[in-house]
C-alpha cells in the first residue's frame, strides 16, 4: 500500500520551523500559536492514518511513500522513502500527541521569554526530525532523522545559552551523542558491506544468509548508537546535565520521545538482534546496568528535574532490557515506552509547573507542603507517580510488570539475575519517586520568604491533566486482551512461545508489588520527619557517590578527558617542535646561506668577469679530468 | 706553415683579452679586449675549418662578426650614455646594480 499523506507529517513542522526562524521578530506575536497549530495538524494526519490503518487487515497495514531517489550509484540504490507500519504509527501518535500538548504547555511556560518564537521553531524542527527518524524506511533515512533530533536536542538544551554552564551541558549532550552516532554509521556501513542494501525490508530479507559475526557486529554498533541517544550505560552522563534546557524540552525530548529512539532502533532492527545472540545478551546487560544505575542516582538527587532525569534513564533501561529479551520483549518495551511517554512527560510538566510557581527553584529541599497550594499539579503529578512505581491499575503497572515477568522467564541463570535486577529497580524506583512526592508536595513548607507558590494557568495544567489521564488509562487500554502485543506482532515477528515458566505471572506481580511497598515504606519512614533545607554533608560514602552521579563524570574525566588533553598537548608540542621545527630549520639554512652568497653580488663588472673566467676554467678542468 | 701556430696565436690573443677585461677599468679598453677575445675565437674557428677542410668554422666566424658588430653598436651607445651622465668611463664607478 502506498499513501501520499506521509510526507506532510514531516514537511509541515519542517516548513513551520524554517518559516518562523526566517521571519524573525516579525513572527513574535503569533509564532507560538502557528507552531502549535502545525503540531496539532501533524497529529491530525497521524490520527487519520491510524484510523485508516485500523480498518485494514493486520498483514496489509503498513503503507509506504517514495519521495525521490536519493542515492543511485550502480547497484546501490537508496530512496528517500517513508514507511508507516504498526511500530511507526505508535511513535507518530506519541510524538505528535505529546508534542502538541507540550507545545500548548510551552505557550504559557515560556510566555515571559523574549525568544519564545525561536523556542517554538526549534520544537517544530524537533518534531519533524523525530518523525523522519521513525518514518524512514532505511537505516540511512533513519540516520538523517537521528542526527536531526541530536541537533534539536543540542539547540534546546542550550536554549538559554547566555549561561555558560547551560551551553556546556548542550555541548556535553552533543558530544556524548556523537559517540553513539559513530556506532550507527558503522552499523550502516557493515550492513551495506554485508547485505548490499540498507533498507529495513532489504536487510530483513537477506539476514538469514549473513554470518553471525557480521550480525553481531551490526548489533553491537546499533547498541552503541542506542546507548548514546537513549542515555544508557556507558554514555549516560549527558542526560542529567541536559536538564539545563527549558522544562517542556526535558518533558518532550529528554523523557517522552528522543531518548527512546534507541529503543525504537533496536526494536526496528529486531531481525538482526534475533539472529545475533551475543549482541542481544549485551543489550540485556546494558539495560540491566542502566536501570539500576539511574535508579541509584535518582535516590540522591535534590534537584527535582535531575531526579526525574535519573528516573528516565532507569525506565529506558527497563525498555532496553525488554528489547534484549527477544521476540516476546519488543512489544512490552514499546508498550512501556508509550506509557512512560505519558507519565514521565506528565511529571516533567508537573515539575515545570512547580518551578513556575516557585521562581524557577529546582531544589526539592526548598519545596515542601506544595500540595495544598497547587492541587491540580499535585494530583496530576501524583497520578504519574502511581503509574511509574507500578501500582495497579495505573499504566506503569501493566507495562513494567510484563517486563519483570519476561525477564524472570528468560532461560537459565540469566533470567534470575536480570529479573532480580528489574525487581530491585522497581523497589528503588518506588523509594526515590516517593521521596520526590514527599519532599515536594507534603510536609512543612521550607521555601524562601519571597516565594509565592501558586497554581499554574489552564494552558499549563490542561496538558498535564490529559497526560495524567493517559498515565491512568493507557496501560489497561494497551494490555487488555494482549491488544498491543498482537498489534505489533507483524513488525517484530513475535509468536506465542510456550516455554517452562519459572514463575507464574501472579507470583511475579506479587513480588513486584511487595518490592514497591517496601520502597514506599522506606521512603516514608526516612522522610516523614523534618527535612533539612540544606543537604546534610555528614553522610556515608555511598550517598556521596550517588550525589556525584555514581562518579560517571569523574570516570569520564579521569579516563577520557585527561588522557585526551594529555594526548592533545603532546601532539601540539610535537607539531610545534618537530614538524614546525623542521620547516623552520630549512628556512633558516636557506636564509643564512643566501646571506653568505649575496656578498658575491657586489656590482663590480670586473669581479663578475673574473668569476665567469674562473667558472669557465673550472668547467674546462672538469671536462679535462673526466675525459682524461 | 703549421696550422697549430694559428691556434697558439688565438690562445694568446684570448688570454690577453681576458686579462685586459679583468684588470683594466676603462670601459673602452674593456670593450676592445672583449673584441679581442671574440676575434681570437674567430681565428680558432677559421683554423679548425682549414684543418678539417670544411666551411662550417668560416661560416660561424661570419656570424660572430655580425653579432660583434651589433654588440659594438649597443655597447658603445651605453658607454657614451654613461660617460655623459657620470663624466667617467670607469667600470668600477658604475656599480649601482648590486641591490
Automatic annotation (TrEMBL), chain A:
Signal peptide: none annotated. Its main location: membrane. It is found in: Membrane. Residues 70-120 form the NADH-Ubiquinone oxidoreductase (complex I) chain 5 N-terminal domain. Gene3D superfamilies: 1.20.5.2700. The keyword Transcription does not apply. One of its GO terms (biological process) is ATP synthesis coupled electron transport. Keywords: Membrane, Transmembrane, Transmembrane helix. One of its GO terms (cellular component) is membrane. GO terms for molecular function: NADH dehydrogenase (ubiquinone) activity; NADH dehydrogenase activity. Coiled coil: none annotated. InterPro entries: NADHpl_OxRdtase_5_subgr (IPR018393), ND/Mrp_TM (IPR001750), NU5C-like (IPR003945), Proton_antipo_N (IPR001516). It is a multi-pass membrane protein. The chain crosses the membrane at residues 6-23, 30-51, 87-107, 119-136, 142-161, 182-203, 209-228, 249-266, 278-300, 373-395, 415-438, 458-478, 503-525, 608-627. It holds the Pfam family Proton_antipo_M. Residues 138-419 form the NADH:quinone oxidoreductase/Mrp antiporter transmembrane domain. The keyword ATP-binding does not apply. NCBIfam families: NDH_I_L, PRK06590.1. This is Unannotated protein. It comes from freshwater metagenome. The lineage of its organism: unclassified sequences, metagenomes, ecological metagenomes.
UniProtKB/TrEMBL annotation, chain B:
It is a multi-pass membrane protein. Pfam families: Oxidored_q2 (PF00420). One of its GO terms (cellular component) is NADH dehydrogenase complex. The chain crosses the membrane at residues 6-23, 28-48, 60-83. One of its GO terms (molecular function) is oxidoreductase activity, acting on NAD(P)H. InterPro entries: NADH_UbQ_OxRdtase_chain4L/K, NUOK/Mnh_C1-like. It is found in: Membrane. GO terms for biological process: ATP synthesis coupled electron transport. Keywords: Membrane, NAD, Translocase, Transmembrane, Transmembrane helix, Transport. Its main location: membrane. Belongs to the complex I subunit 4L family. This is Unannotated protein. The lineage of its organism: unclassified sequences, metagenomes, ecological metagenomes.
Amino acid at each position: 500500500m502506498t499513501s501520499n499523506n506521509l510526507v506532510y507529517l514531516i514537511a509541515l513542522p519542517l516548513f513551520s520551523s524554517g518559516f518562523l526562524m526566517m521571519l524573525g521578530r516579525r513572527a513574535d506575536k503569533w509564532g507560538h500559536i502557528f507552531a502549535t497549530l502545525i503540531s496539532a495538524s501533524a497529529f491530525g494526519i497521524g490520527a487519520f492514518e491510524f484510523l485508516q490503518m485500523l480498518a485494514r487487515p493486520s498483514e496489509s497495514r503498513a503503507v509506504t511513500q517514495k519521495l525521490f531517489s536519493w542515492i543511485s550509484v550502480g547497484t546501490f540504490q537508496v530512496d528517500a522513502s517513508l514507511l508507516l507500519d504498526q511500530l511507526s504509527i505508535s511513535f507518530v501518535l506519541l510524538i505528535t500527541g505529546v508534542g502538541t500538548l507540550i507545545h500548548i504547555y510551552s505557550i504559557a511556560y515560556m510566555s515571559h521569554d523574549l525568544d519564545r518564537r525561536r523556542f517554538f521553531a526549534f520544537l517544530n524542527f524537533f518534531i519533524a526530525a523525530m518523525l523522519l527518524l521513525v518514518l524512514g524506511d532505511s537505516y540511512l533515512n533513519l540516520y538523517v532523522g537521528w542526527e536531526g533530533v541530536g541537533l534539536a536536542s543540542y539547540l534546546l538544551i542550550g536554549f538559554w545559552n547566555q549561561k555558560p554552564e547551560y551551553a556546556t551541558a548542550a555541548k556535553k549532550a552533543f558530544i556524548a551523542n556523537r559517540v553513539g552516532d559513530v556506532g550507527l554509521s558503522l552499523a550502516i556501513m557493515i550492513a551495506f558491506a554485508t547485505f548490499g542494501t540498507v533498507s529495513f525490508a532489504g536487510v530483513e530479507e537477506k539476514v538469514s544468509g549473513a554470518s553471525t559475526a557480521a550480525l553481531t557486529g551490526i548489533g553491537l554498533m546499533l547498541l552503541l548508537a542506542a546507548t548514546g541517544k537513549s542515555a544508557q550505560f556507558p554514555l549516560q552522563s549527558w542526560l542529567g546535565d541536559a536538564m539545563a534546557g527549558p522544562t517542556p524540552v526535558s518533558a518532550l525530548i529528554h523523557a517522552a520521545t528522543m531518548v527512546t529512539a534507541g529503543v525504537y532502533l533496536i526494536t526496528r532492527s529486531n531481525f538482526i538482534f534475533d539472529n545475533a545472540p551475543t549482541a542481544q545478551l549485551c543489550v540485556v546487560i546494558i539495560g540491566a546496568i542502566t536501570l539500576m544505575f539511574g535508579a541509584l542516582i535518582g535516590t540522591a538527587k535534590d534537584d527535582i528535574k535531575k531526579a526525574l532525569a535519573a528516573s528516565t534513564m532507569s525506565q529506558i533501561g527497563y525498555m532496553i532490557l525488554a528489547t534484549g529479551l527477544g521476540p516476546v520483549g519488543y512489544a512490552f518495551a514499546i508498550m512501556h515506552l508509550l506509557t512512560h511517554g505519558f507519565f514521565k512527560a506528565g511529571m516533567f510538566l508537573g515539575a515545570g509547573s512547580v518551578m513556575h510557581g516557585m521562581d524557577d527553584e529546582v531544589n526539592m529541599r526548598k519545596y515542601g507542603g506544595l500540595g495544598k497550594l497547587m492541587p491540580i499539579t499535585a494530583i496530576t503529578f501524583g497520578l504519574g507517580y502511581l503509574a511509574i512505581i507500578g501500582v495497579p491499575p495505573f499504566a506503569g503497572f501493566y507495562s513494567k510488570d510484563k517486563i519483570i515477568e519476561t525477564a524472570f522467564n528468560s532461560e537459565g541463570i540469566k533470567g534470575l539475575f536480570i529479573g532480580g535486577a528489574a525487581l530491585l529497580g522497581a523497589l528503588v524506583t518506588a523509594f526515590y519517586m516517593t521521596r520526590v512526592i514527599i519532599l515536594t508536595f507534603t510536609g512543612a513548607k521550607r521555601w524562601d520568604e519571597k516565594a509565592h507558590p501558586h497554581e499554574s494557568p489552564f494552558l499549563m495544567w490542561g496538558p498535564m491533566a490529559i497526560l495524567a489521564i493517559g498515565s491512568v488509562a493507557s496501560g489497561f487500554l494497551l494490555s487488555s486482551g494482549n491488544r498491543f502485543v498482537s498489534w505489533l506482532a507483524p513488525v517484530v515477528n513475535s509468536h506465542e512461545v510456550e516455554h517452562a515458566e519459572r514463575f507464574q505471572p501472579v507470583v511475579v506481580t506479587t513480588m513486584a508489588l511487595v518490592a514497591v511497598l517496601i520502597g514506599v515504606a522506606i521512603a516514608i519512614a526516612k522522610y516523614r520527619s523534618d527535612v533539612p533545607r540544606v543537604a546534610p554533608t555528614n553522610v556515608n560514602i555511598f550517598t556521596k557517590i550517588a550525589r556525584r552521579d555514581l562518579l560517571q563524570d569523574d570516570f569520564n574525566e579521569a579516563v577520557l578527558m585527561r588522557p585526551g588533553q594529555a594526548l592533545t598537548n603532546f601532539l601540539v608540542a610535537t607539531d610545534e617542535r618537530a614538524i614546525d621545527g623542521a620547516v623552520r630549520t630549512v628556512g633558516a639554512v636557506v636564509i643564512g646561506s643566501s646571506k653568505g652568497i649575496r656578498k658575491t653580488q657586489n656590482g663590480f663588472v670586473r669581479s663578475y668577469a673574473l668569476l665567469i673566467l674562473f667558472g669557465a676554467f673550472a668547467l674546462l678542468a672538469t671536462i679535462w679530468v673526466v675525459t682524461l | 706553415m703549421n696550422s697549430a701556430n694559428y691556434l697558439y696565436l688565438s690562445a694568446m690573443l684570448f688570454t690577453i683579452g681576458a686579462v685586459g677585461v679583468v684588470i683594466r677599468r676603462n670601459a673602452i679598453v674593456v670593450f676592445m679586449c672583449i673584441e679581442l677575445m671574440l676575434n681570437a675565437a674567430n681565428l680558432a674557428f677559421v683554423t679548425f675549418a682549414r684543418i678539417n677542410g670544411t666551411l662550417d668554422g668560416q661560416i660561424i666566424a661570419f656570424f660572430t662578426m655580425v653579432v660583434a658588430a651589433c654588440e659594438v653598436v649597443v655597447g658603445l651607445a651605453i658607454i657614451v650614455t654613461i660617460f655623459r651622465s657620470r663624466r667617467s668611463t670607469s667600470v668600477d664607478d658604475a656599480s649601482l646594480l648590486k641591490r
